[in-house]
Amino acid sequence: MSGRPDDHGAAPVSTLSKDGDDRVGAGLVEDPYPHAVLEAVLGEAESGELLRWLSEDASWVVESNDLYTQYRCTNILDLICCDRVRIRSALLRLAGVLEQTFDVCIDRRRVEISAHKLVRGQYIGAHTDMPHGVTETHRAVISVASPTAPVVGGELTLLRSEHPSDAAVRIAHSHDRAVLMELSDRSLHAVTPVRSGSRYSIVTGYWTVDPGWESVPHDHQRTPLPRHLMRVLERLGACSVPHAGRHVRSADHRAKPRPLCAHLAGTYAVLRNWGAEPDVCAAGLLHGLYGPLGIGTALLWIDERDVLRKAVGARVEELVYLYSVLDRRSDEVSADGLYRTRLLGRDLMETIDGAKLAAVFLISWASRREQAPRAGLSPGEADEITARLELFDSLVPDRAAADLRTTFGF
Length: 410
Prior knowledge:
Largest sheet: 13 strands, mixed
Oligomer: single chain
Structural class: alpha+beta
Distance between the termini: 57 Å
Order of helices and strands: EEHEEHHEEEEEEEEEEHHHHEHHEEEHHH
CATH topology of the largest domain: Jelly Rolls
Low-confidence stretches: 1-25, 246-254
CATH superfamily of the largest domain: q2cbj1_9rhob like domain
Protein name: 2OG-Fe(II) oxygenase
Strand content: 15-25%
Number of helices: 12
Number of strands: 18
GO molecular function: oxidoreductase activity
Enzyme class: oxidoreductase
Family: Belongs to the iron/ascorbate-dependent oxidoreductase family.
Helix content: 25-40%
CATH class of the largest domain: Mainly Beta
EC number: 1.14.11.-
Radius of gyration: 22 Å
């Protein structure tokens, strides 16, 4: 379905269903490349909560280079876990609209989200993000703005070439509006300088199901795994979905990523070699099921915890859960020797068993270790691991501490 541009130079707008009905789509426009526009994406209540969160609870850091100057949200995981906004359900609804609009099949196990803010003078230059296994194949950009301080400028422009004057479509920044885009070498876009107001946007990435991706059975000879745990991974599809780890981002973008189960099995092997407890090793094997830190490839939603708990036991499932929701920047030891931390989406610090907290960090380090040397550490990350090793001390196997220091050179 296609239609004539409206006064914003974009496709006729339509409303995204709020009851989970994926049959509602948006008008598709082919010029300069396939895109569409939606109004009332979240609805009044949820878009209002999202605006409040972005303006009051979000943490921002400025980013500036030759291409853009903007603010990036550094606590996006809190938004994902925030019950008031319920952004997860919105992402799934959008997946249905993308399928309807672009006539594709979206992989709902793989969704990524980021948030940006542009203020006066900030902009994004002309660029495209070509799909290559790591970058998404489709994108939805949700606009959020205060009704009392509307954004002037900050138009999303869809271009025919890299020259700013070659704009085919200009889409004004309007509260609760979404722009859907199909990414390719043609999907050039930019944002004009903001003249006034705060331009908030939620950028969500989606991947189409890759018909060329085949399920890759686990090599049991290389890494022997408990049979009941491997059955869980196979049943949830861990052998049939690619692992979009950070080692892929630095590799040749034409290389085919390995299956998620290969990374999980490797993490399990690292933990076994370190002498970690069996439950910690099991949680390491399953640590990606709720998604890496709550985003990316998620084979189970966190509200399906009972499914995993019944399959692997309460302690293993709790460690897998904590891996996804633990704010790893907040842990501390109180004066009475208790460990305190914060869970994502919650405001208050909570007391947590030190052994559980140490196990979550151990799994995280094992995941990074499994990807070495393809994924190195920044100096800040090395300092962070060193500080945690000292904090947990007797709760971390000596073999793990020695291996980390040797591998990453700190």
